[in-house]
Amino acid sequence: MLATTTDPAKLPLLSGRGALPVDTASDDLVAQAMRATGGAGVDLVVDHVGGALLDDLVAAAGLGATIIQVGRLGGRRAALDLDRLAYRRVRLVGTTFRTRRGAEHRAAIAADLRERLLPAIASGRVRAHVHEVFPADRADAARDLLRGGGATGKVVLSYGG
């Protein structure tokens, strides 16, 4: 598994979680992905960045790979090499939770998470890295930390005990 960051201070956190960390500010993501996969390319990408990075993700993808585009921290527009996208038969899936409407739809997502994710959390296979827990009355400080990019994991608001 490869994991990316633009902050060299976050590299040890990624490697400590079992990932091969790639600093996309200084490393060649495509070369690292190809080296790590013996030239085959990666099978699955969850892209939280978007923008100019998306074309590199297509270049790092293997034949028949899937890229799930979730976030747009790097911008909402990207230029893609459509030949490369087609030759590699990459499935590009865009998703957001902003347009999820209706109680039934949200209930189905919650049920799916309970069924699939909670057992992995309970067994320890999936663990969130918590950077800091803030009491609810310090929500502004939590927001400032997130906006400043200094968090190396989840920022949690606590509403009691």
TrEMBL record:
Keyword Oxidoreductase in the entry? The reply is yes
List the SUPFAM superfamilies.
NAD(P)-binding Rossmann-fold domains
Alphabetically list the UniProt keywords. NADP, Oxidoreductase
Is NADP there in the keyword field?
yes
Q: Which Gene3D superfamilies match?
A: Medium-chain alcohol dehydrogenases, catalytic domain, NAD(P)-binding Rossmann-like Domain
Stored PANTHER family: QUINONE OXIDOREDUCTASE PIG3, QUINONE OXIDOREDUCTASE PIG3-RELATED
Return the protein name: Zinc-binding dehydrogenase
Q: Which organism is it from?
A: Saccharopolyspora taberi
What high-level taxonomic lineage is stated for the organism?
Bacteria, Bacillati, Actinomycetota, Actinomycetes, Pseudonocardiales
